[in-house]
């Protein structure tokens, strides 16, 4: 199958600095893929290599099976990288008309993409009067002119206020729901967590994880609160082994899978203990990313 994006050993060196280090990632059809990493991790360089704007030092990249640089490799690929540039004194609509003409796109795409990004009402206003969020959405509109099957967005929520971020998230979700594959980069864990199907985590140019958000988080055990707690701890140690029980903040962390929750509950109740809480524990995603990237991820606003 020709995946929307596939890279093998993609590498970019600038002198002694390896900005992107043997990156192998794959983006599947129809998914919203979050490319997540701290500032300077190599996200923009990677996206620029996918678009043929930066030449890789080593490795390969294909979009829908076409090697970067081959004829038609950007057919039906839309991109917004490092802030869109528009004519400040033209309206949003006229800016898009100029771009449509130079890209050989039919003029009737302009009202269609303006509606898609919720800018139809303000389309006649000059670009300079737009809020940052509107400017970013106009950038997405420009990327949509080609009616892309793959949309590549570099930090689409960067610099936006919370309302602007929410609008951008809605827009990306809507685009994802239409079947368009979206690859977006972000240094904001919260953003990626809310809108992406899968994430690739990059740190110092290397892909350190690639999976669904749920898989990354994983389930690590059960949290149990019961009265009396010390008797519950003794009972559980006997049942599952002493190494698997830890007392944390007035609760017991038990290192067994959530599928054994009902069994454990029955055992504790059968032993005359009052169980007030028993639930599966998920790892804290912040912690997961901190460990993967050794710090440096920012919080969502
Ligand atoms: N043209 C260049 N020449 C030299 N070094 C570069 C060049 N472009 C990028 N770099 C370096 O490569 C590394 C990765 O940069 P890149 O912009 O890809 O990271 P990023 O993850 O997109 O971060 P940010 O979110 O800050 O843009 C950085 O150390 C950067 O300084």
UniProtKB/TrEMBL annotation:
SUPFAM superfamilies attached to this UniProt entry: P-loop containing nucleoside triphosphate hydrolases (SSF52540)
GO MF annotation, one: ATP binding
SMART domains, per database record: AAA (SM00382)
Domain ABC transporter intervals: 5-229
Claim: Isomerase is one of the keywords in the record: no
Keywords: ATP-binding, Nucleotide-binding, Transport
Entry annotated with the keyword Lipoprotein: no
Pfam family, one: ABC_tran
Similarity annotation: Belongs to the ABC transporter superfamily.
Protein name in UniProt: ABC transporter ATP-binding protein
